[in-house]
Amino acid sequence: MKVFMIGGTGLLGSAAAAEFIKRGHQVKSIALPPLPEGAPIPEEMEIVFGNYLELSDDELREMMKDCDCFVFAAGVDERVEFPAPVYEAYEKYNIKPVQKLLTIAKECGVKKAVVLGSYFAYFAKKYPNMELTKKHPYIRSRIEQENVALSFADENMDVAILELPYIFGTQPGRRPVWTILIEQIKDMKPVTMYPKGGTTMVTVQQVAESIVGAAERTKGGKAWPIGYYNLTWNEFLDIVHEAMGVPGKKIVNVPKWTFQLFGLHMRNVYKKKGVEGGIDPVGLADIMCMNTFIDKKWCVELGVQEADIKSAIFDSIKLSVDAVNGTQKLLGMKGE
Known about the structure:
Elements: E1 2-6, H1 11-22, E2 26-31, E3 46-49, H2 57-64, E4 69-72, H3 87-107, E5 112-118, H4 119-126, H5 132-135, H6 137-150, E6 158-164, E7 166-168, H7 179-185, E8 192-195, E9 198-203, H8 204-217, E10 221-225, E11 229-232, H9 233-244, E12 251-254, H10 256-273, H11 284-288, E13 291-292, H12 297-301, H13 309-325
Parallel strand pairs: 1-2, 1-4, 2-3, 4-5, 5-6, 6-10, 7-9, 8-12, 9-13
Antiparallel strand pairs: 9-11
Helix pairs in contact: 1-8, 2-3, 3-6, 7-13, 9-13
């Protein structure tokens, strides 16, 4: 296949590009400069530097010409802050681009499309009584993104949405998202206070395999729940503490109401900063205090292989600690 990708130099996009190329496919990508220093960007990938949001329809058509597959590995997640109403930012970066790009892709005869989404959408559908789309703008936006993407699936185009969970792994030169976690817990002494729950997770390489697997195997339109390793927060934090140099640090599981009080504090912080959170910090307590686990059967169906999740977590946290301490020069997150 000839693959056109938005975000091919990012953490996930570059790993997917390498996996596509390894399997004999060709990859072309448009991406924002600069490249992270030392990042393993595949030499075989054709890269056009620029902002896809600023390209005309004709320019995008030219890039997708003769391509068989389109991958949207860009957008923003809930950790990037925006002024209220935050939903407008998600429309700009996550929803409207998918509408526009898939329209052009279909015009160009592209047969396969893969859109990277969020596992929050999976749980919003699985637990409608939690009203996650009502409480959280980000989750509502991910459901809308899925609906837009799947509307293009027909006999001429197969469309896959990957509902991605916690992801671990590093790209040299790029700041990990887990610096937020380090900043939260590094000053918690002598114990780490965290809710009792857990989550599903995958490595960067497993995401790459799921992207390529979805491009090769999806028929029609399908949202794939992605998760391989299910860890409780305590199991996860034991690895985090080891990577932070405080192995065996005690963990105290706080009740939900304590987390909700912290959420009220964060609402005030957001208000003073003039921003709105994509995930409501009070409502987040419901999510953090449950086991957001996903059966690995969908990953297996996509051909995802076993990985060393502990090493991936360890490496992510070590780089995050360096980022927080300022010991490495790293590129930060941006709207891609």
